[in-house]
Amino acid sequence: MKSIETLSYCEAIKQFLKKQTEGFVHSKFENSFNIKLNDRLVNISADSKIYSPFGIQLSERSLEELLTSIDLNDLVIYSHTTKSISFPKSSISVTFNEQSYRTSTTGRLFQRDVLYNNLKEIVNYLDENQIDNGFDVNVSKFIEVTFLKRDPAYLQNNEYLMMVRRLKTELISDKLDIDVFRYFVGRGIGLTTSGDDFLVGILAAANIFQNDKINLSEINACISSLLDNTTDISKEYLYYAVNQNFSKSTIWLCERMRNPDRLQLIQTVEDVLDNSQTSGADTILGIIAVTLIL
Question: What is this structure's pTM?
Answer without folding.
Answer: 0.93
